[in-house]
Every structure is written in structure tokens, then in C-alpha cells.
Amino acid sequence: MGRKEKIARSVVRAIVNNGADKRSNSPLALILALFSAFFSLYQLILRKVRPADFANLRRQHWDVSDDDYVQSFQADDDRSGEQALKAVGDMGFSGSTFYSTADQKYLVKSVPRHSEHSFFSEDLLTPYVQHMATNPRSLLVRICDFLAVSGPSIGRVFRSAPSHHIVMDNIMYGREEAKRQGEADWENWDLKPTSYFYPERDIAGGALTSEATKDQLADEFHDKITLRREQAEDFFSSLEADTKLLAEHNAVDYSLFLVRMRTPQQAAASMPPPTESTIGPTDSSPRPPSPPTWRTGVTSADGKYIFRASILDFFWAKHKVQPRVMTLLVKLWNLLVVKHGPMSITTTPDEYRERFLKLCRGIVEIKED
């Protein structure tokens, strides 16, 4: 079993039975399990942080039953775990690992940086829980669980495996089924203000870094989301409330994850005529439930697309040690080498919020009735 599979098993075990190994209650088995855990490099023992708060959000505010939630983390053969999570994506700039549940409903992202997981657990967790409980239309990604390493181990000392993970709602849920039905693939963008100083892009014209590295920078959306006025006002209102919370707690560098798919009518018009082998129910395209939200899908005013949106990656806080060091380094660079201005991770929370809201407003076009 490889590194990724062992990390996945640790996550599944924490979700399904709260990190406890229930295979045996004998003292010898317990001693062997503890011994194995201590010398494990990758399969760390994880515990749920504030499980009652996240369970309350899932049950009372997001209408997710415990059985359905746990079922997403169980493989069909009911094994303990490596089949239940699939590694997806790449490591990114933060060194994070990403997994998706087999049913695609949830994503698991590691949070390896101490400055980020300590910010969430010590500063943002309580305000986040309160905000999500009182703002049902929030665009902040739904975090369903927060996992942290428990007990000493070799892997924890050498940081060979992530010590913290978040389990979050996957707003790309349904994409694989749509592809199986022959529909056009969904488009997605990870948007943040691009006018900041990005060393990978701006030093020596980007010649010092690879294209793969530069491709991991923020995307640009060269189009418009056409909305009715009430849709736009709902979108902007949610953005204002969510970013106000983040700015109050010094968060910067968050992004808007935007998903676009064709409406059933547009998808049907673009598909080739059915053959005898494909005749059958085809109306499987995603339809926003009533009332539609940006998490489940909002139909554009022109009837062409369904959009989903969520605010991600809000764990970088200016008052933590690593961000403060980065801010100092960028200031020295601007003073001693060439002035580029702040990076998105070194600017002030209020200034970042202003540019982020301007970006979000700039991609919306209002269609008057």
C-alpha cells in the first residue's frame, strides 16, 4: 500500500469510526496497534476536531444525515478504506493532497502548513460555524469535518504525512455522471485578483519558472455571468457578508471557484441525434432544485448555462508567523530590487477584499426584465 492509500485509509477511519480501530478489543491487539501507529510514516491516527459543531451543521442546517455522510466514505466492499477515497489533482503550491469520495460528493484536502491549520482551529472555526449556521446562502465552502493528528508518531515528527485535513462539499458533484451521458464537460475557474505581484509570473517575465508552475496561478474568466437583477443582488449580498467575515479575521488570498455547465436545453441541442443504441431517458442534466443556490446551481438569465460558485482557500491569515515573514520579504524586495507592490498573500485583508469583490462584480452582467 502506497503513501496516498495509507493517508486515505487514515482519513476514512477517522470519519467512519472516529479514528478508533474497532477490529479487536484484546490488550495485545491494542498494544500492537499503538506500536504500529507510533512507527507509521503515513497512516497517522486522526481525530475529529469539534465534531459536535460540524455534525450540527450537517444535520440541522445542511440536511445531511449521519448515515448518508458516512456512507460516502465507505467502499462498496465495506473494507476499511483505501478504496473509498481516490487521489485527485496535484500537490499545488501548498503541498496539499486532495481526495474525492467514490460517490464524488465530498473532497478531502490536507492542510499541512501550521500557519493555516492553526488559524482555522484557533481563530476562524467558531466564527465560521456561527456564520454558516445563520447564513444558509453563504458562498463559503461547506466544511463538513476537520481532522487533526492524534498521539505521537514517527510520521508526525518527520511530517511524512499531512497532520490536518478538511472534508468539504464538492460543488463539482454530478460532473462524472453528465460525462457518462455524453454531455459537454463542465468548465471551472479558480478566480482571484491577478493584478497582484506574482513572482512566478512577474520576475524576468516568468522565464525562471516552468509553464506548469505558472499554470497553477489564478485563472481568468473571459466572459460574463448573465443574471437577473435579483440574482445578482443575492450573489453580491452573499459575497459581501462572507468576505466581511474573512476580512475581520485577517484572511487573504481566498478564491472564487466558478463552475459552468450547459442547461438541459442547450446540452440537448448540442448532442448528436440519438441512435437506436442510445434511445432512452436522456434528461439527466443537472437541474437546480427549488430554490436554487450557488452551491446547487443558478440558471443564467439568458437560459444558456447553470453556474455554481464557492469561496475556497481562506486559511491564509496575515497575523500568523509565515505570512508575516512573507510580507517582510516582499517589502524588502520592493525596497531593494524593484517595486512590484504586494502579493495576494501579503496585502491587507481589507484591500484584498476590495479587489476580490471588484473581480466578482466585474464578471457579472445584469439583464433587466
TrEMBL record:
Keywords on record: ATP-binding, Kinase, Membrane, Nucleotide-binding, Transferase, Transmembrane, Transmembrane helix
Name of protein: PIPK domain-containing protein
Gene Ontology cellular component list: plasma membrane
Gene3D superfamilies with a match to the protein in the record: 2-Layer Sandwich (3.30.810.10), Phosphatidylinositol Phosphate Kinase II Beta (3.30.800.10)
PANTHER family xrefs: PHOSPHATIDYLINOSITOL-4-PHOSPHATE 5-KINASE, PIPK DOMAIN-CONTAINING PROTEIN
Pfam families noted in UniProt: PIP5K (PF01504)
GO BP: any one term: phosphatidylinositol phosphate biosynthetic process
